[in-house]
Write a structure and sequence with these properties.
Blueprint lengths: L2 H26 L4 H28 L5 H16 L6 H28 L3 H21 L3 H21 L8
Length: 171
């Protein structure tokens, strides 16, 4: 494995780990300040790691070319689903922008404002996040990565189910 491949893979797994740790801690915190602080730190580390992952992928795999990234996304999508479409790259861009905005909101507005977000927004945001993580780790991966991703997704589902009353998500 080359250094570029290692960095690209390492940063995405740090991003997934930060996402999972931050989400689980937030979902299970029941408003405890220490847990919320740990959740925000993990959430931030995950976001920064995703930024680093995108930089590594564009540097080591796509020569800083959107067109090359689009073609590679289309190739991977065709391999996994049979659909030759690179539009999933735009979902990745949306994830990146939205996660940076979410982290900025949490740091700037504070934990109380972050916890008071509309439940529909929280549900939609986390549905999008789990959709992205599931696709990246289960649909488009194989072997150990697929199983690890499935465990992360199931674990987060359990965490959100356990913390749903805290967030007004119990229907």
């Amino acid at each position: 494995m080359s250094g570029g491949e290692f960095l690209t893979r390492f940063t995405v797994w740090v991003a997934v780990a930060g996402y999972a740790a931050g989400t689980a801690a937030f979902a299970l915190s029941r408003g405890r300040r220490r847990w919320d602080a740990a959740a925000r730190l993990a959430w931030t580390v995950g976001c920064v790691a995703l930024l680093a992952h995108v930089a590594c992928a564009f540097n080591f795999y796509h020569a800083w070319s959107h067109a090359a990234a689009y073609r590679d996304t289309a190739r991977q999508t065709a391999g996994a689903t049979g659909l030759d479409w690179g539009g999933g790259l735009y979902f990745n861009y949306a994830l990146l922008v939205a996660w940076v905005a979410d982290v900025a909101w949490w740091w700037r507005r504070g934990r109380d404002a972050y916890r008071r977000r509309p439940r529909a927004l929280v549900a939609a945001w986390h549905a999008f996040l789990i959709f992205m993580v599931f696709n990246a780790t289960v649909v488009f991966a194989s072997g150990v990565v697929r199983w690890a991703g499935l465990c992360v997704c199931v674990g987060l589902g359990v965490a959100w189910w356990g913390g749903r009353r805290e967030h007004g998500l119990n229907g």
